[in-house]
Amino acid sequence: MRTIFTLIFLIFIQATSAQYLPVRTFTPTPRGNVYYTNNVPMPNNNYGRYTGITSYKYDYIITLVNDSVFKKFVSINIYDSVHFIDIRKKKEHIILKPADTKKIVFKTSYKDYVGLPNDTCWLFKMGIGRINTYTYIPEDDWLYVAAIQKGTNEPIVGLTKENLLEMVKSNSEAYELAEKGKFRMAIKTFNGWK
Q1: Cα–Cα nearest to 137, from 58, 60, 26, 55
Q2: What pLDDT digit, counting tens, does each position of 24-46 carry?
Q3: Per-residue confidence (pLDDT) for residue 163, from 0 to 100
Q4: Is the pTM of this model over 0.85?
Q5: Which domain holds residue 78?
Q6: How remote is the C-alpha of 184 from its chain's centroid?
Q7: Residue 19 belongs to some domain of the structure
Q8: How many domains does the chain have?
Q9: Is 179 helix (H, G, I), strand (E, B) or coil?
């Protein structure tokens, strides 16, 4: 009985040890340093519930190219070069890419997130101003800003230094910030969002 308990205990220790990171430290004493190892929990890089592979799951209203509309609780898979929505029914497996849709909409009590199809992803308008900002998932977070648009009639372009410098060239303060790579501050300054 004692052998079985010891075996189970050792298997449990081995299985749970992968969740910890051994950190070697020491304590200084008058007769020298005393070294010991602490098991520290592994860092969680999920930053909330976002895993980096898919967006959060939402109830999207999806409008296809053929004008059919349906609602589905899904997430956007962003790990591939072309983002997609993976819809699984009982025996069906449907993959929708941006080219297959006219738009996808996620509604909250305070805002409607409308995803417009681009060549590789859906773009959701995050910030509205003289320069509009677009994210590739429906989140109001600057980490996900991927595209910008000057006004409402200009084309939506990728967020690059060259594109931003062209848009903010009339504002010297915003231009300097964009030159330094501070895109967020340049857009805020240009839009007057300070």
Answers
A1: 55
A2: 766 777 777 777 776 666 554 43
A3: 92
A4: no
A5: 58-159
A6: 16
A7: no
A8: 1
A9: helix
